[in-house]
Structures are given as C-alpha cells and as structure tokens.
Amino acid sequence: MNPGLEKRQIVFVGRRNVGKSRLVNAFLGQESGTVSEIPGTTTEPVKKAAELLPDGPVLLIDTPGIDDYGELGQKRISRTIKAISSADLAIVVIDGTRTLTTEEYELFNYLYKISVPFVIAANKIELGINPDLLEEIKLLGATHYEISCKVGVGIDTLIRKVIRMLPAENEPPLIGDLVGPGDIVMLVVPEDLGAPNKRLILPQVQTIRDALDEDTIVVIVKDYELHSAFNSLKIKPDLVVADSQAILKVAVDVPEDIRLTTFSILMSRYKGDLKTYIKGLKRINELQNGDKILIAEACAHHLQEDDTGRVKIPDWLRLYTKKDLKIDFAQGADFPENLSQYKLIVHCDGCMITRKLMLMRLNEAHLMDVPVVNYGVLISYMHGAIPRALLPFNDTISDWKKIPVPHEQNIFCPQR
C-alpha cells in the first residue's frame, strides 16, 4: 500500500550532449527531434511522469551534464548529484563512440558508494561502437545496452530491462499495522492556517486513506470537539491520532487505556526512521551555548507568521535548553554538505519527499556522527507526550528508556 502515491524515480545522467534528453523522450514515446544539439541546454533537473507498464507510474528525471564547467556549471552538477541520491534507478548515458572520461568514472564510483542500481546506455551506435569502451565497461562489471536514439535502435530492449531492474516498493506501513477491520480510528484535526485554503494537509489525507484501506471506521473531529465526540460514541476508539502541537490538550481528553499518537510520529517511521529520531532526543539535553543546530525542511513554502520550523521550534529549543543556540535553516534540496558543523539536525517530517531521500539524509548525518530528530518527535517530547505517544509502537519503548530525562523533562508539562 502506498498512501502517498509516490512514483519511483529514474534519473538519466551523463556528460553533456550524449543524448540524455533524447532518451527521456524515447521512454515517453515522444519525438526526439524536440531536443537541441547544443551541449548544456538542460540546466536544471527536469521531471516528467511516465507509465512503464506493467510496473506503474514512474518519474523520469533528465539532468544537466556531469562535465559542466565554471561556477554555474558546478551548481548544476550539484543539483544532478542530489537528483541521483534520491533516485531508485540511474540510467548512465554515454557516447558509444568514445572511451570513458574521468567524470564518468567518478560517477560510477558515486553510484556504487550510495548503492543506487544503474544500467549503462551506450548511445550513438549508428556511428559505431568503440571496442576499448566495451573493455572498460567489462572491467566495471556493469550491465550495458547499445542504443541509438537517433534511429531508434535498442530502446525497447533497454526499457524492458529498466522495468525489471526497478526495485519493488518496500515501504513500512503508515497506520495499517496498528488497526484492523472494524476498528475505530479517531483523527483529531485542528484548523491549520498554514494549509492551502484550510484544506487537510498531506499526512492527514494519507492517514485517512490508509485507515480506510484497512476497513477501519474513521472518525474525524476538531480538537475542541474531542470531548463531546467521545461522549457520543458507544464504543471507544482503538486509536486516536492528533496533531503534534495539540497533543497535550488532546491527551487530557483521551483515557489512558486508549492508544494515542500523532500524525507526525506516524510519518516518522513511514518516511524516515522513528528509532533514529528517538535516539536523537539524547543530544537535546547535551546542548551548550554556541552550539549550531540545523533546521531542515524538505519543501519550500512561504514563511508564516507563526511558522513551525522557522519560529516555534527555535523558540521552544532555546526555552527548553536555556542555551544560546546558533540556528541555521535549509529548505528544499538545499541540504548542506558540511553537516559536521552541527550538534543536532531537526528535520521536518518529510511528507513531500520520498522515503529513500529521507533515509539518504539520515545516512549522511550518521556518517558525520550528527544526531537527527524530526519535528513530530521533538514537539511531542517537549510537550510531555512521550512516552505515551510511542506506546502504539512496541519496538520503540526500549530506545526511549535509554534517553536520560531531566527532572523537569519539558517546558510545557513539568510533571511526567
């Protein structure tokens, strides 16, 4: 089940003018004559949806050349690297008439390092194939296909190979393992002034969809309706899911014998790694004056007056730690490379990016020995909702017990 309806991503990467854009068009069944012969005309990663039957929808990503030059060229290469890092499969397009370049060898090394599966498409075979290139590919131990985008040779074979190579979807459940047919799930949804036209935000919609797919009964209420909703139900709900910032108020109205968690904590394990975030809580109580914190958001949006990432969390962290913390912000794809300068990373819940990309970011932080906690876990912790909000997830309690907690654990609810 895929509540987010996310498309797996195939990235086309290679040097300038090797035929990446033509190959993307061939995958889309479009005329290749719409692309330019001028090197470097693709300056940003271009995403196009496609249906690769029988595998379903995928996202094809055309990228700038890895041999671009100059300051602007380096920025383009950086964007290409980020696109590769989030890909489920890479198609490395090379010129079949030439031997491999230094940039291409570096690309292969990077793909092996980050464990992104790839296939080589040796293009321009209408001009012949370089025998020395074939020997180089053999030494790499890579699979290659000889194609011609110009005359349409080998494309169908390549597409069939790509369909077989795409990794199967292996996502953790969102809510499906917590409830079953006939169970009652109560979703407490506050008015979110930051949501477009006050619509439900994506984690709420995904939770509703996943719960309905499990044949559960979904009851949706606003936070101020919770008490009366409980009184009107003849049967107690099996699970209550609330907004992180309303969890303290909701917990008062939800009896202790009813499981309670938050949308953000559900997203924590669906898009990232809940255990990693719980372990990250340990660093909060170790922060000192002058320590640098990175607050990272996966999507770019207009700053709200009371923005959670830019305003509330920094204020709460400083109030909780009573330390003079230095806080940097990152949005969208601008995830810093020099993570070692930070004592802690506070990441959003990642509802707008793939789980693969979120795990890549967690791995980058782990390699730099920088703890990570996400918005939902951090907010619940400082609101005094942990460990209760973790109780539905039995495998997390042992991790929580390893976190040293001060006598006054949080700034909102001094009593545990």
The number of distinct helices, counting runs of at least 4 residues, comes to 14
Give the CA-CA distance, first to last residue: 37 Å
The CATH architecture of the largest domain would be: 3-Layer(aba) Sandwich
Total number of domains:
3
Structure in words:
- It is a single chain.
- The protein is built from 14 helices and 14 strands.
- By secondary structure, it is an alpha/beta fold.
- It folds into 3 domains: 8-165, Rossmann fold (3-Layer(aba) Sandwich); 184-266, 3-Layer(aba) Sandwich (Rossmann fold); 273-401, Rossmann fold.
- Residues 1-5 have low confidence and may be disordered.
Considering the chains and any ligands shown, give keywords for the structure.
single chain, 416 residues, alpha/beta, Rossmann fold, 3 domains, six-stranded mixed β-sheet, globular
Task: Describe, in short, the structure shown.
By secondary structure, this protein is of the alpha/beta class. The protein has 14 helices and 14 strands. Helix 4 links the parallel strand 5 (about 120-125) and strand 6.
